[in-house]
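Long-time lurker, first post. I've been practising inverse folding by hand and with some scripts of my own, and I keep getting stuck on stretches where the structure tokens seem ambiguous. Below is the full token string for one chain I'm working on. Before anyone asks, I'm not after the true native sequence, just a reasonable design that respects the backbone. If someone could post their per-position residues I'd love to compare against what I wrote down in my notebook.
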């Protein structure tokens, strides 16, 4: 009986301490249920990690003012709530790897859905190819104009930020994207951003020159990365992962790119440069080929309307069609060398290469296979032919190339003039992830979540603390597992200041030991880690306990199938 009571009592104490540790909640904007009511922040404001904020209304940071957000801050969006940074205003959201800034809907676990709130719109003064004072998509109700003459404009900082379940639909074709960037300049700093389950595009750039690295698009309903109206930024290390059950009423693509709405030669051209992209469509491995009835998953890359996009050293897989160069104007850009795809591996189950253009001097297949360009995948093949490590789970993917896979061995090329900017990091592998590094050393580890539906935000943003594995700790310690919630595996870390006899066990809520992870003498000091595989265990709460040299500590974790 005593063995059963100890973990249960510890669980009760954990619950009580969590309730008492609840952070204060503060409403910002015009108020809960305010809908489209406009609120203008005409002063400088800082949001603290010690408070949970509920964003309401059309919250606009006015010109010349700044919204600063501390690392580890949680902002919950009321229905329709949208954060807008007006031209001349700034956002300084500088999260950290183990303390990201999270924007999520004001709903509990299990009840979140795409479009629960608006999203983030940043408007700047950089050039576009639109007429004077264009209105941003979704800006019908607040007159959000963007663009200007300054390519080096700054709208602030967006580092280690998650945006979950955005995309509120005001009306058809007037939705908010997860992250909308209108005329944003290249002195704006954007890296390590994840948009999850947006009802519209995950990311959309309307003109501008802003650069970005380390972007994740998860489960978006429309396009992952959409570029329009003269966007000319540089982007590297992007990961898009589709949920087969989420798709738009029109067409859901990995990339969609237009020069302008009618495919004319308006300048500046949309000519953004991408390198090291991994796009994984709804057919993510050979066991997930079937798509739901009525789905609109279409193209990995849909390049149309005179775009001059450039894509290098990338992986595009899991879509019925891989590359679609749509229309005469885009085909002409490809023939002229203004639209480029080089050193890229494509996999498609129906049509790897497609074009409706009538201006090819040969055809898209011969163009793609041009000697020296290093492209692969003009024939139909299966998703597993690409050779990613493990894409069986949407909530725990491993998108690294295996060491002997095509992306790891086919080669890259960074000698192209478009890649000579020091912004680009030279790699020997295609795609966004390094096959030579373990999963926990990849750039998306520690700050992202691939299971936002089950993220627990009752006490703000929580995560594991960054601890060097070979550091000598001051004392014994048991760290929070990561990821948490998890499925099907999670990593548990513990600290030893000296050689010790260690027992590390996992218990269910009845106090029954279901796994012994460590039981013996551990000679090495430092931070140790062990992986717990849930196998066939049901969803629910579990506890793990560390016992060593008179030290005992218990922590709670959640398995979410």
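-- Answer (accepted) --
I ran through it position by position. Result:
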């Amino acid at each position: 009986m005593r063995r059963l009571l100890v973990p249960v009592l510890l669980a009760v104490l954990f619950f009580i301490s969590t309730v008492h540790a609840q952070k204060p909640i503060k409403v910002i904007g015009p108020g809960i249920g305010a809908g489209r009511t406009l609120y203008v922040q005409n002063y400088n404001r800082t949001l603290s990690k010690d408070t949970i904020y509920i964003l309401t209304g059309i919250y606009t940071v006015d010109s010349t003012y700044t919204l600063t957000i501390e690392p580890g801050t949680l902002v919950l969006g009321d229905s329709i709530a949208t954060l807008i940074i007006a031209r001349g205003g700034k956002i300084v959201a500088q999260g950290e790897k183990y303390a990201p800034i999270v924007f999520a809907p004001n709903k509990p676990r299990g009840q979140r859905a795409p479009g629960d709130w608006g999203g983030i719109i940043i408007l700047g003064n950089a050039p576009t190819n639109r007429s004077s004072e264009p209105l941003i998509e979704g800006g019908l109700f607040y007159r959000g104009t963007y663009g200007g003459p300054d390519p080096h404009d700054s709208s602030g900082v967006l580092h280690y930020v998650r945006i979950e379940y955005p995309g509120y639909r005001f009306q058809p074709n007037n939705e908010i994207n997860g992250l909308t960037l209108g005329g944003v300049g290249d002195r704006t700093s954007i890296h390590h951003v994840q948009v999850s389950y947006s009802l519209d595009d995950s990311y959309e750039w309307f003109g501008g020159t802003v650069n970005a690295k380390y972007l994740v698009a998860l489960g978006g309903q429309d396009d992952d990365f959409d570029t329009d109206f003269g966007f000319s930024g540089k982007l590297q290390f992007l990961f898009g992962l589709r949920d087969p059950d989420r798709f738009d009423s029109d067409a859901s693509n990995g990339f969609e790119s237009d020069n302008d709405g009618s495919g004319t030669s308006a300048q500046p051209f949309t000519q953004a440069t991408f390198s090291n992209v991994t796009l994984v469509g709804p057919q993510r491995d050979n066991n997930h080929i079937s798509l739901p009835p009525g789905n609109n998953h279409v193209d990995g890359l849909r390049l149309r309307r005179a775009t001059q996009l450039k894509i290098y050293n990338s992986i595009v897989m899991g879509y019925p069609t891989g590359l679609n160069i749509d229309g005469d104007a885009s085909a002409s850009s490809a023939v002229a060398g203004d639209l480029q795809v080089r050193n890229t591996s494509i996999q498609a189950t129906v049509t790897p290469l497609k074009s409706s253009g009538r201006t090819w001097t040969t055809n898209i297949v011969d163009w793609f296979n041009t000697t020296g360009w290093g492209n692969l995948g003009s024939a139909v093949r299966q998703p597993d032919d690409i050779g990613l490590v493990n894409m069986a789970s949407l909530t725990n993917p491993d998108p690294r190339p295996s060491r002997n896979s095509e992306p790891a061995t086919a080669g890259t090329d960074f000698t192209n003039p478009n890649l000579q900017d020091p912004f680009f990091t030279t790699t020997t592998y295609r795609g966004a992830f390094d096959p030579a590094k373990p999963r926990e050393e990849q750039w998306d580890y520690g700050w992202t979540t691939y299971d936002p539906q089950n993220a627990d935000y009752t006490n703000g943003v929580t995560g594991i603390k960054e601890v060097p594995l070979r550091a000598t700790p001051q004392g014994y310690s048991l760290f929070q597992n990561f990821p948490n919630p998890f499925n099907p595996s999670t990593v548990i870390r513990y600290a030893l200041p000296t050689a010790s006899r260690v027992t590390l066990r996992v218990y269910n809520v009845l106090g029954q030991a279901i796994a012994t992870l460590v039981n013996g003498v551990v000679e090495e000091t430092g931070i140790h880690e062990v992986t717990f595989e849930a196998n066939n265990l049901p969803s629910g709460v579990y506890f793990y306990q560390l016992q060593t040299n008179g030290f005992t500590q218990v922590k709670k974790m959640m398995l979410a199938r």
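A couple of notes from the structure itself: The first strand starts at residue 25 and ends at 28. The chain has two domains: 25-441, 458-559. Happy to go over any region you disagree with.
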